[in-house]
Design brief:
Layout lengths: L2 H18 L3 H12 L3 H13 L8 H19 L8 H5 L2 H22 L9
Length: 124
């Protein structure tokens, strides 16, 4: 793990904790604001997020994982092919989210080892 990647993880954790402290309406508004969605798209995303529990804005951390090793990790864990699935659809699939949560636990442990001085490499 590099210092730059460790800083990225910490920033993403801080952002996620901040979002969790907001109402669902404020969460989707903040995510759309960051993504610079048009007013029309913001309304669509609000309906998706509040009524369908669909998140149109997966975190950058998830997107990096999905593009680098998430598809392969998910295929190994679920036995299903994920190569043609984009990150938004994947993020909203419970089977992928289970694999993502396992990855987060592994990443947390690597971050802890890195901060303690035992530099472990993350392959992405």
């Amino acid at each position: 793990m590099t210092a730059q990647y460790a800083a990225f993880i910490k920033a993403e954790i801080k952002k996620a904790k901040w979002l969790q402290g907001l109402s669902r309406e404020a969460q989707i508004a903040a995510m759309c604001e960051e993504a610079q969605c048009s007013d029309k798209i913001k309304k669509v995303h609000e309906q998706q997020f509040l009524r369908r529990h669909w998140n149109p804005h997966p975190s950058e951390r998830f997107q990096r994982w999905w593009m680098n090793r998430g598809k392969e990790d998910s295929q190994r864990a679920t036995g299903s092919a994920w190569s043609d699935i984009d990150s938004v659809r994947a993020y909203n699939c419970e089977r992928v989210r289970e694999v993502w949560r396992e990855h987060l636990c592994e990443e947390r442990d690597e971050l802890r080892r890195f901060e303690e001085g035992d530099e472990a490499e993350i392959p992405f």
